[in-house]
Design brief:
Helices cover about 40% and strands about 20% of the residues. It has about 625 residues and is α/β, with parallel strands linked by helices. The strands form four sheets. Strands 12, 13, 14, 15, 16, 17, 18, 19, 20 and 21 form a ten-stranded mixed beta sheet that branches. A six-stranded parallel beta sheet has the order 8-7-6-9-10-11, sandwiched between helices. Strands 1-3-2 form a three-stranded antiparallel beta sheet. Strand 9 (about 280-285), helix 12 and strand 10 (about 305-310) form a beta-alpha-beta unit. Helix 3 runs parallel beside helix 6, helix 13 (about 310-330) packs parallel to helix 18 (about 405-420) and helix 15 (about 365-380) crosses helix 16 (about 385-390). It is elongated and about 80 Å long. It starts with 11 loop residues before the first helix and ends with a strand.
């Protein structure tokens, strides 16, 4: 195919780049879009209305359809000249296309200052931004120039479009406007179903492949590799383009990882993957709230790459800064796998519930803690025994306090709070208490009253500010949270329109977490771009932290000395704090000198409970530390 005569505004270098992309493979739509973005990068900057943007996208699809017949003829001729077995020539052509594609700048649209308006941001392969100014009329003028140039293409046949529509299996509706059914392309030198055709269509050499670079090959990283290898054809069909791994990195190259990694380039340094020219999406699975994880993500964004991560600790501590960096550069940062493993709670809150005002978010977000608590109940074992069992099974982090201390779950809660309430992530404002003080006696006595003990995270916006707490609570045994067993996670979201939604599933593990990582990769491959936390990072507010003030009933466990007047003194302290007793029960003696006593209060404030817990030791009747647990209504 001869290169269409280019408008004067096209530089010689850009015209050559378009020529390579057009003559080499059948995705004229993308090449023309990128070319026009690049040409206007120094002029664009004014907000474009939603209507103008949709019109522009429809016109670009029409250009692609209008020149499709000539494009297929050109590609077929090239294949006939090389012969179907001329793999070397074809590979060289495809490498040339990839080089030419790197000349094209990447563009994205972000929400403008006015509702229904969009602002373009342009980034070249070095990560440099090119904002500018242009109105919708100027955009449409460029469309007209490009359309006229495309229609002047030599060898244009009047009915080529219809003839090649039959060959391609038709043009189908998908999203806005018409799109080529790319996965149905039948190369003239091949027959339908030919394995050589399928191999070519899913080849990572294709110029439109989404190329992944993975840093971190632990449980989740290897899970991602396995899914990409196992479902390559499925991913290509669902995204319209191949998804291929080009580079990987981990600490130990010699480790046996139960996966074939021989076809991927190995890099000892994750930074080399983050900045590689043959990587479009950097997948960070190293972990940690600073260091190489943070540095490599920043480097990838500045290199013009999108980023997918499962790093909850990093997002909880540096999420706001990373969101501002990504959105400022026009790149995407996604993290479905960072919260609740395989449960698609991030997507649900940023997209499906976008029309709701979120009232409350709560849930069980650490599978290890839930395993320990349910195992204690089912086996009748003390905390220390089950903790050691969990360690032996590999359920605990290298630093166990991240799990049992509530820190891991607190990271997740702070991320969900930001999305739910449009606030900046503030992990330091989360009230955190672990499960270390929960005893087998607490679990048994809670069961006697119809409750289960869970490490529960709760976030809600109040007139006093944003409440965020992660602590062991009693929940009704017959509630969805109360029935949760083992390592399963559950997130409950309450919206003003939708009511209460319960999302339940595997919160960790190779398959579930890798599945969440792939969901982000697929969204990027489809061209979906959203603000990191559901709203532009610059619009997120710094919420006023507020300590929990909502009244609730409380469970209080006391070990009292076995002497007259002990219960009376406890009742006096609770009365002085303004706490009304719902029920009080004395159990059999643990030792000759002490008696366990359980108190359940009517609804009271956290301040009143704090006052009472601080005053009780001064009565002189306690034989051990008191334990108080909130009873949460769910």
């Amino acid at each position: 195919m001869a290169l269409p005569r280019a408008p004067d505004r096209l530089s010689e270098e850009m015209a050559a780049a378009i020529g390579h992309a057009v003559s080499g493979f059948g995705f004229l739509e993308e090449a023309l879009k990128r070319a026009i973005f690049s040409l206007t990068r120094k002029e664009l900057g004014a907000e474009v209305s939603d209507e103008a943007l949709q019109h522009w996208l429809r016109r670009m699809e029409e250009i692609a359809d209008d020149t499709l017949g000539t494009l297929i003829d050109s590609f077929a001729a090239a294949m006939r000249q090389a012969g179907i077995d001329g793999r070397q020539e074809l590979a060289e052509d495809l490498r040339a296309i990839r080089i030419s594609r790197n000349l094209l700048c990447h563009a994205s649209w972000r929400p403008g200052r006015k509702p229904g308006h969009w602002l373009p941001t342009f980034i070249n392969t070095k990560g440099e931004r090119y904002p500018g100014e242009m109105d919708s009329a100027a955009i449409l003028a460029i469309h007209a120039d490009t359309l006229r140039a495309a229609r002047r293409a030599p060898g244009r046949v009047d009915h080529a479009r219809n003839r090649h529509r039959r060959r391609m299996g038709g043009i189908r509706r998908q999203g806005r406007g018409r799109r080529l059914t790319r996965c149905m392309m039948l190369l003239p030198a091949l027959t339908a179903g030919d394995p050589r055709q399928e191999a070519f269509m899913s080849s990572p050499l294709r110029p439109d492949s989404l190329r992944l670079g993975i840093a971190g090959l632990g449980t989740v990283g290897i899970g991602v590799v396995k899914i990409v290898q196992k479902h390559a054809d499925l991913l290509a069909r669902r995204t319209g383009r191949p998804v291929a791994i080009t580079a990987i990195s981990a600490r130990d190259k010699r480790k046996n990882r139960d996966a074939d990694l021989s076809s991927y380039r190995w890099e000892d340094d994750p930074m080399a993957v983050a900045t590689a020219d043959d990587v479009d999406v950097f997948v960070e699975l190293v972990g940690g709230d600073a260091g190489i994880a943070k540095d490599s993500i920043e480097a990838a964004l500045r290199s013009g790459k999108d980023v997918v991560t499962a790093n909850k600790a990093l997002l909880a501590v540096h999420g706001q800064a990373l969101a501002e960096l990504a959105e400022g550069l026009g790149r995407t940062l996604r993290f479905e796998a960072a919260v609740a493993g395989g449960i698609p709670v991030i997507k649900a809150m940023t997209e499906s519930l976008a029309g709701n005002e979120i009232r409350r978010v709560m849930g069980v977000m650490n599978g290890t803690c839930n395993y320990i608590l349910t195992r204690m109940e089912s086996a009748g074992l003390p905390y220390e025994s089950v903790f050691e069992e969990a360690r032996q099974l590999g359920y605990l982090e290298a630093d166990p306090t991240l799990d049992v201390g509530g820190i891991d779950a607190g990271h997740k809660l702070s991320i969900l709070s930001s999305i739910a309430f449009g606030t900046q992530v503030n992990f330091d404002a989360v009230e955190i208490e672990g499960i270390e003080r929960v005893s087998i006696d607490d679990i048994r006595r809670a069961a006697d009253m119809g409750y289960k003990i869970k490490l529960l995270g709760v976030a809600q916006m109040t007139p006093r500010g944003l409440e965020q707490r992660m602590s062991p609570c009693l929940v009704p045994a017959d509630s969805p949270l109360g029935q949760l067993v083992g390592g399963t996670n559950m997130v409950v979201v309450e919206g003003d329109s939708v009511g209460q939604l319960v999302l339940r599933g595997a919160g960790a593990g190779e398959g579930p977490t890798a599945s969440a990582v792939l969901s982000d990769i697929v969204e990027i491959a489809r061209g979906v771009r959203l603000p990191v936390f559901g709203q532009p990072a610059t619009a997120l507010k710094a919420a006023q932290p507020a300590r929990t003030a909502v009244p609730a009933a409380y469970y209080i466990r006391l070990e009292l000395q076995d002497k007259p007047g002990a219960l009376a003194k406890v009742a006096t302290v609770l009365g002085d704090a303004g706490i009304s007793i719902d029920r009080m029960r004395q159990y059999g003696q643990h030792s000759p000198d002490s008696v366990p006593v359980l108190v359940v209060t009517h609804k009271t404030t956290p301040e009143a409970i704090d006052f009472a817990i601080e005053a009780l030791p001064r009565t002189g009747v306690l034989a051990g530390e008191p334990v108080e647990l909130r009873i949460e209504e769910v």
